[in-house]
Amino acid sequence: MECVSEIPQRGPEGLAADSAKSITLLDIGMVEDGHRASYVSFLSSLFPLERMGFCRRAVFSRRPVLVPMVEESFLIYAATAVIRSLMGRSTAGLLFRPLPALYGNGVRLKAKYLLLALLRRFPRVTTLTILPFEVEPRFAEIADDWIHDPQLWDLEEQKRQSAPPSTPGLLNQLHASAGGRPICMAIGRQDRSKGFDWFCRLFAENLRLRESVLFAFGGKVSQDLAAPLESFTRSGGFGCNRFVSDDELMQLYSGADLVWCAYDASYDQASGIFGRAVQLGIPVVVRKGALIHRQCLREGIPCVAIGTADHDWESLSHIPPREPRAVVLARTRRMRDESLQTLHKALDLRR
């Protein structure tokens, strides 16, 4: 991959954009889309950085190297980290999906576990999960430390917007459909991994739930869920089965009393939808025992935890209130400060 660099920037923490404190962002295999561009932009607000693809200059950079998503090209991350360790240079990588390496049965996943465990023995190599070790103590077998998922504290860095959406058309439709009922909202792309089939089934099969709560979603639905979607729509659920703009996404959050994060067991990981809801003080629906459920318990985040038991849906009729803004901001700032402290340590940066 050809080297691509960007001009270092000054972040909100007051870091000077000089070579002594800048880092190399090793962008290995990341697909350039809106989410990734936003992620890289956020990282550049934290550190003066030079973004590069995988190349000799990046591997041998004298500056600390940060790999923003280890899973995108794990072998390149491992090889780069080992080479740089032997030269006495620092490398850190963010591990988004640690559970497959811990509990997977295939040869590839077992090899990944062994390599991650081996990397812990190398000096100046720091693999970081984006969930606390408390929610899964076995993370410590394959990672050196952890930060909070950036999507739990990035809105603070982007000067959180409190103004209402500029064109509230979707929000008006949502409120009209609710007729005074609280709204449980599923946001973004909808498929089985996001628990959308469960979401549809709960609403369609429970009359008392439909009478007390409106289920609604905004985002494109996977084609293999046409049947559950049809049943959901017939039962009076609110749907916007298409791509939704950033402004419309904020309308969906604004109208939600509860955000659906009860994802399938195959998607047991940090979630951007979850992070946004938490930063906005909106209670969340989580699957009992999931990592984000454990995180809610750890952080005191208001949630409704449901399982597959027949009557678990009844708890959805008892929605906790939104968190006070002061509580949300205090948590967000603490998560930011804790995460930045860990990142600075991993990258050998002086604050």
UniProtKB/TrEMBL annotation:
<protein>
    <recommendedName>
        <fullName>Glycosyltransferase</fullName>
    </recommendedName>
</protein>
